[in-house]
Amino acid sequence: CHDLYLNIHEFVERVFEDTDVNKNQVKEIILVGGSTRLKSLEKLLTGDGWVLNKRLNVDEAVARGAAIFANMIRLSRPIVIHEVTPFRYALTAFVDREKNTNKNVNNVTVIVDRNVALPKSGNCLLAMKYLNSKKPKNSITFGHPNKFNLKNEGSFSNGYEKHDSSFSFNINVVIDDRNKFLKYEELLKFQVTHSWKNIHYFLVDVNFEINCNGICKFEVTPKEYNDVVNSPICNSKHVTVQLNPGLSIDEIALMKSNFSKYEAEVECEKKRVLCKNILQSRLFKMKHCLKNAIKLMDKHYILVFNDKIQAISDWVDRNSKASNDELEEKIKDAENIKQQIEKCKAEYKKKVDQKIEELKNVLTKINNNMTLAKSTINSEELNVIENELNVIQNWFSDSQCTQTSVSDVDEKITYATNIIVKLNQLQLKEDQLRKDARIKLTKVIEKIEENPFPGFEHLQCYGQYCYKLNLKIREAKEIIKNTASTSTSICESKINLLRLIEESEHALTNEEHCRQESKVTVNEAVKQLEQLILSKGTKRLSPKFEQRVKDLIDNAAKWLDQHTSALSTEYAEYAKYLSQEYYAVQEEINQDNLRVWKRRELYDKVINFLKMLDGVNKNNLNDKQISLIKVSANGILDWHRDNVDAAIVQIEEKINEVKNLEQRRLIIINENDVKTFDTDKAFVGIDLGTSKCFLAVFRNSKWEIVNLESQQSRMPSYVAITGDKIIVGSEAKNNATQNIAKTIYNCKRLIGRSVTDSTYLKEKAYLTYVISELQPNKIKLFVENQKTKESYSPEQITAMLLMKIKNVAEEFLKQEINMVTISVPSMFNNAQRLATKNAALIAGFTNVSLLNDTLAVTLKYVWDKIDIVPRKICEQPSTVVQIEGEIILVVSIGAGFSSFSLIELKKNNVEVINHCGLDFGGNEFDRCLYDNVDMNLKHKFDKKEKYELLLKVENRKKELEKFGVVIDTPAVTLPDDSKEFICIKDYDSQCGHLYELVVQKLRELFVEVNRKRFQIKEVLLVGESSKLKRLKKFFNDNFAKVKEFDDKSIAVGCALHSAISQHEQFRIIRFSDVCSYKYATECKRNEAIVLDKRSKLPTNVYNSIKAYMDFAHEYPTFLLEYGDNYRSVIAETTIESVEPVRMNQTAFKLYLEVDSSGIISFLNENDKVKEEIHVKSSVRGTELGQLQEKAEKHRMSILKDVEIAKERELLSESIEFNQRSLDKF
């Protein structure tokens, strides 16, 4: 129907095209007609924003409007209605086809246009002219009078020519909706026939009128026109024509006269039809009545009456023209049949009532029997019978009996009679069951009364259970005597009686068993007390405790004799009493022994202290000081002698006094003799981080953090290379967006790795500089300048960072620095450690030590703890506080790596128990958010956009951690389309797996060394990412104490390590690290573990390898490094054939050494060969020298950059000073 909807829409559009009305002026649309309810039509009409008026009933609106209009006409209400013509009316004229074979030419004259107000009237003239004979044939011209210079009023049509002297001329009235008469409909046609004798012109006058109802009338007057006098000659007929007249007035009058003739016949026919309708209606009702009376009368009568009714119905069908008398006779017959039907129904109803009364009597009898049966019978069968009875009673209650038949009632009576029979049978069965149950219960009672609980007469609770049993027997006898008792109640009584006996016997058995056990417990408690008396030697009791124990033993013996039949609870309570007394005595004995031991400890401490005073050098203490201290010590000895029975608390107080004397002695020694430790030697530690670096210096027994840049202790790990200029630190980072391809960062993530490393393959997706993978197993960083394109190894870039740090340290200390300790993650493998050391050597350091970051934090933690005396602890080692044994957990999560260590502290000895780590840090949390934005936006970022987005995401992560929401700041603003993907919900969901990996790794750290969480005294957190909210909550929830360290702590620990390692004066703290990886050798696919994980460092191992030979040639041997899901070949050697140990077998030795930095040395030794094996590294020995030479050039550029930075800082300070001076002025 789509085309129909489009047509409707087209006509709606035409309404506006024909007028000057704008669509926006339409307030609402009124729909009329049932089809306007179509949803598609409503949707089509409301497409232009119109409102549909749905208050009108579309079906009744037209009729209601017509009624209102009629009422207004009748009352002559002052209302104006403007109606317009829906069509266009026109006249056409053409020659009769039969008289002229020339082609007809239609001429259209519009007399009334569309949308003209009604009523409308007017006239039109049609003119014809006879042409002269100069043309081949005579012709007639038809057209507008002005065409022939005729003066007349009115409107005229176009011309038409006729080449003949006589013709018949047709004039039509047509209508058209809007197609400009391309297609039109003829409403009226009239013909003008005339001869052109002596007449040159001929006129036709057409008058028309269209009334308010839209009905048209036309008057046609043919006129001759004399061209001499120029006036029409009206000698033709005057014709009045109405459009589509339908019936004429004469036809209507004839129809009225004929109607009176048939009126009587119609009246008679009406009566006959009425009688026939009455008869058919009664027959239909009677048939319906019989159909519903199937249960109200006999079926025989129903068939008889059906036949009679059908006979009358057939007669009516056969006699369609029956007279009124015949029909009335049949109506009487139908009435007689109806009376007979009612009589039969009444008789049948009487029979049904009698049957129902009989059924009620039967039900009354059943109810009486049921009441009696319920009091004596308790059976499922009785419930079934009761349900059957309820079916019949429900039949009565639902009023089904009022519309039932005799057969139905008889069926119910039979059903009720069967119920009575079932009740009688059930009653007989119940009587027999009751009799048998009484006999069985009587036998059970007789058997119980003879001996209720044999074998338990000696128990104290025996009478109690017998009393309960007698009560139950009395109840059973009463049930037997009661004639109204059912078989079920008698059986239940028997079951309850037997159950009581069973429960009582079980309880008595338990009581006897518990009684015996409790008695044994009492005897054991007595034996324990006796054992105390029998103790000899040092464990022998004092007379006071011995007499107390003997009294307890005697009282226990008396109690056992007096309570031979006591309950088990009494035995248990007495055993508990004896046990408590035993432990009380034992506790008093232990307290007494402890008091004696404490007295002995006090005495020994005082004596040893006095001996120490006598051996003290007089240069340390003078005689007066010694005598004063001795007086206090001798006073403690006198108190010890006089207070033999002193309490433990008092003795401990005296022991503390002795300790205070020792502390006092140390303080006096410090006051008397202060050694000067004068050294200018400084020790340097560097925290070489993925994102930032710190420098710490330890000198004169103090540590301090050195500012690497202007007013900043931290230096970003950024290097920018532009031509010959090398920029390191903040300036490189600040200009990274403008110099994106020449700025290198996160170099620590690449150092010591190969191009096949999985971490490298993942890392390079987030880097913006060019990385070359052309050389096997080597990573090269490309920097393209205007003239050249140079490549740098990660070691060279790291060396540039260290060069600047070294230069700053030398400027600060005013001396050359060659020794340094650099921090590395604890999970760094051999290649990464070796590459880091090479980078330091390239930077100009000659003595390089590497220290795990977790151990560095621990060294600072221990130093802070023992440095409590307000003086230089290295100058007075005797003042060092000794730390008690404790285990701590150190967690270091930086930007690129995560390290976890379990460390044990034993009297200032720091021993690492276990290491583990993860190959990611805080940057991985940023990248999870970045990946979420990248995946959802599906937009390829260029290098600059990628770098900027990573920086913005990092800032947003910090805001989420701090505030829980993202806050736009003028400095860093995210794109609008990415904000929705960075929220606390996305942050938690995207980074959830990283938290799970941290927890899993911590679990492995504890499981590997069989340690538990409760053994951890304190957790040390270092690194920004270790203080994330979720991680801090985890540590606070699972550990007793958590302490946070700032980012500078690792550098301080490295400086302390350098001092401790290189100077004996600082070795008040001793430490030992362990190996983070496992090492093995492999020869001809035979593996042998050389060094296991958690081996103490430094270490060296000899390993004798035996290999079977197939031929006497060279055998490759590999050194393997094992970690978590990690296996790597770090060295390879070739063993030449040697003398076989035995047939087809050779042996050789491998020497493996791991220094304190975790770097491996490998030596192959046998009878013929002894050679050092080079461990695989990205930088070889010869290449290292070349890189050091290149580094000298880089050093000059870095130094120049540092000098420029200093000048800039001085200039900035000068400007700031001058500005302050001007402001003050």
From TrEMBL:
Pfam families membership: HSP70
* Family per similarity comment: Belongs to the heat shock protein 70 family.
Keyword ATP-binding listed: yes
**Gene Ontology annotations for the cellular component aspect, listed alphabetically:** endoplasmic reticulum chaperone complex
Name the Gene Ontology biological process terms.
Answer: endoplasmic reticulum unfolded protein response
InterPro entries for the chain? ATPase_NBD (IPR043129), Heat_shock_70_CS (IPR018181), HSP70_peptide-bd_sf (IPR029047), Hsp_70_fam (IPR013126)
Q: What is the lineage of its organism?
A: Eukaryota, Metazoa, Ecdysozoa, Arthropoda, Chelicerata
Q: Does the keyword Nucleotide-binding apply?
A: yes
Could you list the residue ranges forming a coiled coil in this record? Answer: 317-376, 641-671
User: Which UniProt keywords are present, listed alphabetically?
Assistant: ATP-binding, Coiled coil, Nucleotide-binding
Supply the name of the protein.
Uncharacterized protein
Q: Which GO terms describe its molecular function?
A: ATP binding; ATP-dependent protein folding chaperone
